[in-house]
Amino acid sequence: MEFLSWLLISLIILAGIVVGILYSFYFLQERLIFNPISLPKDYKFPFSQNFEERFYKVDEGVDLSCLLFKAKESKGLVFYIHGNADNLRYWGEFAPFFLKRNYDVFMFDFRGFGKSDGKIKGERMLQRDTKILYQQMLKEYDEKNIIIYGFSLGTGIASRLGSRNQPKALILEAPYYNFLELVNYHKAYLPANLISKYYFRTNRYLEEVKVPIYVFHGTEDRKVPFYLGEKLKGINPRMKFIAIKGATHNDMQTMKKYKKWMTEILR
User: Which residue ranges of the chain lie beneath pLDDT 70?
Assistant: First the structure.
């Protein structure tokens, strides 16, 4: 009898520990998912290309840091949604690729990244902020000349935005089938479906997209594994899935096949 009592107490203690760990993961998940690097407000971006620094208000007391790079002879705009880390000082280095193909590039930092105010508190907030910024760009560009481009974590945001608008095209680089599957790949020990505040249901959003979709994924990607992107094939008849052999997570712009496809898309 005494043994059973100790066993029961041990099980209760163990259950309490497990619940405590899951509780901690729930409230700390932003620290696990996002890796922002902040910048002082007076920081001067060093890019040599023609660009404008802008701030857009998305909430009371929250302005997001944005960059609008200008091509010499613009054919339209690439609305670029970046990944889960760093800030515009890093992501701005990707803009020249599109500028050389005569497209302006709009980029922004999420809340808490770079010079942006606030903190990320959930997926809905990210989606809402992105929608507000897209609407700002619609004041300056005809939507038929806008290409929505998502990279890595940003592909889930881009997919939803593309499903609710009518841009020229939607381009995804290193996407995931949905965010829970990506979490399970990196942290299989977590019951992500029970504790996650982030779902980014890319597969569901893409079903609703009514414009051309181009999906690029490197076969050697270890951060967002190739198979999670490949699962998206066939979801929408407007989709073209392009496997880039040998590409990892951050070197897509150096790949000949990618350059060839993008030059054609951005004609």
Answer: 1-27
